[in-house]
């Protein structure tokens, strides 16, 4: 890895890439052909989070923009905390339910029949 960091241009013809996991080769050939330094950074990140998390992040990014996939974007997707999002969604649902309850109470204060509106109030 250290040699590739010093000479990233050697990556395409390296034995390491040719013997790598086919999924890594596919990622390189699809998104990193001219971005060797960025790919080396991705390899280091894969060592931290694992290949499956990277593949999942790439799949999510492909749905947004299949052409512009970068290591930084992959890292952002991997670092995103889904639990916080789910918790915020639950909170929003609670707020929505309380708001609906309040609107129903306000609705019960208003007259439901047109007869109640026949008399004009003097202001």
Concise overview:
This protein is mainly alpha-helical.
What does this structure look like?
By secondary structure, this protein is mostly helical. The chain has helices at about 1-5, 15-20, 20-30, 35-50, 50-65, 70-80, 80-110. The longest helix is centred in the last third of the chain and has 28 residues, at about 80-110. It is rod-shaped, with a radius of gyration of 28 Å. The protein starts with a helix and ends in a 14-residue tail after the last helix. The model has no long low-confidence stretch (mean pLDDT about 80).
Range of helix content: 55-70%
Mean pLDDT: 78
Strand segment count? 0
Order of helices and strands: HHHHHHH
User: How would you describe the shape?
Assistant: rod-shaped
Most strands sheet: none
- Compute the gyration radius: what is it? 28 Å
Distance, first to last CA:
83 Å
How many alpha or pi helices? 7
Poorly predicted sequence stretches spanning 5 or more consecutive residues: none
> Approximately how much beta-strand content do the residues carry?
under 5%
Query: SS-based structural class?
Result: mainly alpha
Please specify the SSE layout and strand pairing:
Blueprint: H1 2-6, H2 15-18, H3 22-31, H4 36-49, H5 51-64, H6 71-79, H7 82-109
Helix pairs in contact: 5-6
Which keywords apply here?
mainly alpha; 68% helix; single chain; 7 helices
């Amino acid at each position: 890895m250290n040699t590739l960091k010093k000479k990233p241009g050697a990556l395409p013809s390296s034995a390491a890439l040719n013997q790598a996991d086919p999924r890594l080769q596919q990622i390189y050939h699809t998104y990193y052909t001219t971005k060797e330094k960025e790919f080396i950074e991705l390899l280091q990140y894969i060592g931290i989070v694992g290949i499956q998390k990277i593949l999942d992040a790439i799949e999510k990014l492909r749905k947004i923009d299949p052409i512009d996939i970068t290591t930084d974007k992959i890292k952002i997707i991997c670092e995103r905390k889904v639990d916080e999002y789910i918790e915020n969604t639950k909170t929003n649902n609670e707020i929505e339910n309380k708001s609906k309850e309040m609107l129903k109470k306000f609705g019960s204060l208003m007259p439901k029949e047109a007869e109640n509106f026949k008399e004009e109030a003097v202001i």
